[in-house]
Design brief:
Layout (H helix, E strand, L loop, with lengths): L16 E5 L3 H11 L6 E5 L11 E4 L2 E4 L13 H8 L5 H4 L1 H5 L10 E5 L7 H18 L13 H13 L6 H22 L30 H9 L6 E2 L4 E5 L16 E5 L4 E4 L1 E4 L3 H11 E2 L4 H9 L5 E8 L10 E5 L13 H4 L7 E3 L7 E8 L1 H7 L3 H16 L4 E6 L19
Parallel strand pairs: 1-2, 1-10, 2-6, 5-13, 7-11
Antiparallel strand pairs: 3-4, 7-8, 8-9, 12-15, 12-16, 13-14, 14-15
Length: 442
């Protein structure tokens, strides 16, 4: 593609030139919608990397398809655009498409057949876990009631949860060890909510807007052939050469009057300047780059700078770090019907801050291990971790991560030898649904 040509596909002599910056699901969705208008614009999608899909990233590994990023369709029902696309492309089975499946009310929480083990290797009764889950998620439901109130009792979701739990603890009648265990279980639920909200701590998530997230009905489901089937079908529906890969954008020049030699006599209000010096003039630009990228580059990415209110919005919206860790075993040490292994660290509590350094405690932020479907004779667990501990893990080698987690699992469940493990530091957890609204001073 010639520099400044703007790409191919959807071209009409008098149609506006539109650029989409970013080839993730948002960018691909925008391109698909634009290309199917009767008066479609001249369209190009500029993607900085060699692949489309963004956080949707399915890869062959461990004998099958594994999800490096997005994992489930949450709330697969008619109000969910991802579900609608997947259904239209024929990517879901009869069970997922059934009316019964779409009507299931999950409250936004995964219901997996689980085992729960303490850090000292004892099994926790599922009744006790269910009791704490009922308490925690009941309080989470209460936090959504502050959406339109003029003033909240405390600034953050974390503070509200801890205040309410503290009042509950005062009325517990069990012995000290049982109380300690119940608090440790609740701490695991806090860590889970950090993964869901994409934050290091629920203390960083503002209470007032927390209820903006809408929980849709439907029993969460996966793609048998990988989540990337969805983006592949969207890409296949686009005209050829619309997507330009390996084309990172350096600066968006906007609110101007730009001319390019390739378009004599034409003037454009926007110009995208790329790292390699190529220039793409446009009448309109749709920006779908990650929020983390905007936080890091907004000072140089827009010329002139964005209005102050938009800069402030970018600054205040939280953006956390989530990671997956895959561990492969020669033989499973878990029961055949187990879907999730929850690890409870007995020395943790949501009502107490941990004082130890990350080197010795980072793995305690892991919420547990999802049992992936068996591929032939391959047995894989997928662990989830968020926050500063997740960022610290990225500084470690695969061998260091593997050693730490092998020790954890041996301590918790005395399993067999881990034969291989890996972690990736450039992926995001599957279900970051709600960017945390960062509190002032957070």
């Amino acid at each position: 593609m010639a520099s400044g040509s703007g790409g191919g596909g959807c071209e009409f002599s008098s149609s506006p030139r539109v650029l989409v910056i970013g080839g993730g699901i948002a960018g691909l969705g925008a391109a698909q919608r634009l290309c199917h208008y009767s008066a479609a614009p001249h369209l190009s999608v500029l993607e900085a990397t060699a692949r489309a899909g963004g956080r949707i990233h399915s890869r062959r590994g461990f004998g099958g398809v594994v999800e490096m990023g997005a994992h489930w369709i949450h709330g697969p029902s008619q109000g969910n655009p991802v579900f609608q696309l997947a259904a239209a492309f024929g990517l879901l089975g009869e069970k997922e498409l059934s009316e019964e499946n779409q009507r299931v009310e999950t409250g936004g929480h995964l219901d997996l057949r689980s085992i729960c083990c303490t850090s000292s290797g004892t099994r926790v009764s599922l009744e006790l876990v269910a009791e704490m889950a009922s308490l925690f998620y009941g309080l989470i439901d209460q936090t959504r009631e502050f959406l339109h109130v003029p003033e909240t009792p405390v600034p953050s979701v974390g503070e509200y949860l801890k205040k309410e739990i503290g009042q509950q603890v005062a009325h517990w009648t069990e012995d000290a060890e049982t109380k300690k265990l119940k608090l440790a279980i609740l701490n695991n639920f806090f860590n889970t909510e950090c993964c869901i909200s994409g934050t290091h701590s629920m203390d960083l998530v503002a209470l007032a807007p927390f209820g903006e997230y809408t929980v849709l009905p439907g029993l969460d489901c996966t793609f048998s052939g990988g989540y990337q089937e969805l983006t592949n079908h969207i890409m296949a529906s686009l005209p050829k050469d619309v997507i330009v890969f390996n084309k990172p954008v350096k600066t968006i020049h906007w609110n101007g009057s730009f001319q390019e030699a390739a378009f004599p006599g034409e003037t454009f209000p926007v110009l995208a300047e790329c790292d390699d010096g190529s220039r793409f003039p446009a009448h309109h630009v749709i920006i779908t780059v990650p929020l983390g990228f905007l936080k890091e580059h907004q000072d140089t990415f827009f010329e002139p700078p964005l209005p102050a209110e938009k800069v402030e919005a970018i600054r205040k919206i939280g953006f956390g770090t989530n990671n997956k860790v895959f561990l492969e075993f020669e033989e499973p040490f878990w029961e055949s019907d187990c879907q999730f292994i929850q690890v409870v660290w007995e020395d943790t509590s949501p009502l107490q801050d941990t004082a130890s350094g990350l080197q010795d405690t980072w793995f305690k932020k892991l919420i547990g291990f999802l049992v992936l479907p068996s591929f032939k004779s391959v047995h894989v667990l997928c662990g989830f971790i968020a926050g500063l501990e997740s960022e610290f893990m990225e500084t470690l080698s695969d061998e260091e991560v593997l050693l730490s987690l092998t020790q954890v699992l041996r301590r918790v469940t005395a399993p067999g030898t881990v034969c291989r493990g890996s972690h990736s530091s450039d992926i995001l957890l599957h279900d970051t649904w709600c960017p945390a609204v960062r509190l002032e001073g957070g």
